[in-house]
Write a structure and sequence with these properties.
Elements: H1 11-41, H2 45-72, H3 75-98, H4 104-128, H5 138-166, H6 169-187, H7 204-217, H8 219-235, H9 237-249, H10 254-274, H11 283-307, H12 311-339, H13 345-377, H14 383-405
Length: 413
């Protein structure tokens, strides 16, 4: 098995990786389902924006505490409990969707509950897998672990789209619940090869404050984490708005929407394959190039439908955006896993994962700004595209400015 990345030589990590793939399929199916169902119930772009708000608030409030708890208690136990809770919500969502009583506010509440569970799941999950690897294989492990997430972005949206089209949304959500339970079963077989030290003094609140102080005095990590919030706010906002874009602008259905989301995954998974052996060495250059390229591609993707509508062009651009965004995530995660002290890792990862919630907030500002533009200028279905292009301009500008005027990232390159 020498052809495998170094991290997959470890039986413990390999088992965890396979379980992670299953769990992430469940998450990706749910992400598709919540957006699609909300748009079915309410076609206004503001409806998807509100979904983003409800999906963001719990993780914004509780994510730092999730990281602090992961540093203090059994990571495997936390993961198992949280995953069982998520599976239960998926099954309930499937039942509710099968009835005639579901309304958009039901989906908002479900999204908020899942967001709450992810506040504890994400930092725990990402800080657990390093204990399954030797230090020398950690760089490879970071990329392979990201492959699990990015890889499911290829298969899960397409699967969800076709399940919705052929069998209905309840079938897709039941499958999400089953894959989540299977992850819990596989997780129970893993055993850390290195002892996980737990904090003995203080409490979760002081742990959070200590983690924030650690970030503040480590300027490269502070810079990367600050930029991450911007990246997810502006660079990923198109994902939550895809149901609106595909149905209202391209006039296609759930299967094509799933296909375009698959394009995001294809682009995102390619860097995890390319860098699975050695990781990214020059993280400063990778981060800045990623911001610049994502900005340019987002502008083209947003404005091209105004001139002519082409699904193949949209798919190609989405693949390239996914590739560029993945470069950023790999660089940041590698810096965190390699350069951050073990006792602070879960809390720092918690802050990084906190930035993920800004992807949902991105849908909020794009949806409302798009609706406002349409109303002010008396146009239809143009405002969302203009708002998305504005986000691209912001990313491009920040990428150039950070490369020219911020030298702190040289320390992690």
């Amino acid at each position: 098995m020498k052809f495998l990345p170094d991290s997959l030589q470890s039986t413990q990590f390999r088992n965890y990786f396979m379980g992670n793939m299953l769990s992430y399929h469940g998450v990706q199916i749910f992400i598709f389902a919540e957006s699609w169902i909300v748009h079915e119930l309410n076609e206004a772009p503001e409806a998807l924006g509100l979904l983003g708000l409800y999906a963001s608030i719990p993780i914004l409030v509780f994510n730092l505490f999730g990281g602090a708890l992961a540093d203090r208690f059994s990571k495997k136990l936390i993961l198992s409990v949280v995953q069982i809770c998520m599976a239960t919500v998926y099954f309930f969502f499937a039942y509710l969707y099968s009835t005639d009583y579901i309304q958009d506010w039901h989906v908002y509440i479900i999204a908020a509950i899942i967001s709450f569970t992810q506040a504890f799941d994400n930092p725990t999950r990402i800080s657990y897998f390093p204990s399954l690897l030797e230090k020398k294989h950690l760089a490879s492990g970071v990329v392979v672990d990201l492959f699990a997430w990015q890889g499911t972005r290829v298969t899960a949206p397409l699967l969800a789209g076709f399940l919705f089209a052929i069998f209905g949304g309840s079938t897709a959500l039941i499958l999400a619940g089953i894959t989540t339970i299977l992850f819990v079963c596989i997780l129970s077989t893993t055993k850390p090869i290195s002892k996980l030290e737990k904090l003995k003094k203080g409490n979760p609140l002081t742990d959070v404050m200590d983690g924030l102080k650690y970030i503040y005095v480590n300027k490269p990590i502070l810079t990367l984490l600050t930029m991450s919030f911007l990246v997810y706010l502006a660079g990923y906002s198109y994902i939550g708005m895809l149901p609106y874009i595909t149905v209202q602008i391209y006039e296609v259905g759930s299967a094509t929407t799933g296909l375009l989301l698959m394009g995001v995954g294809i682009g995102a998974v390619l860097p995890t394959i390319i860098f699975s052996k050695s990781g990214i060495s020059n993280k400063r250059l990778a981060v800045c190039l990623s911001l610049g390229c994502t900005g340019i591609l987002s502008i083209i993707f947003s404005l091209s439908p105004i001139i002519f509508k082409s699904i193949p062009l949209a798919f190609t651009l989405i693949v390239l955006i996914g590739f560029s965004n993945s470069i950023y995530v790999i660089a940041v995660m590698s810096a965190i896993q390699i350069y951050v002290d073990d006792n602070f890792r879960a809390r720092i990862v918690g802050v990084f994962v906190l930035s993920f919630s800004f992807m949902s907030l991105g849908s909020l500002w794009v949806g409302f700004m798009g609706g406002l533009i349409d109303n002010i200028f008396s146009v239809e279905k143009i405002g969302v595209l203009v708002a998305l292009s504005f986000g691209g301009v912001v990313l491009l500008t920040v990428g150039i400015l950070v490369y020219l005027f911020n030298s702190s990232l040289k320390k992690v390159s």
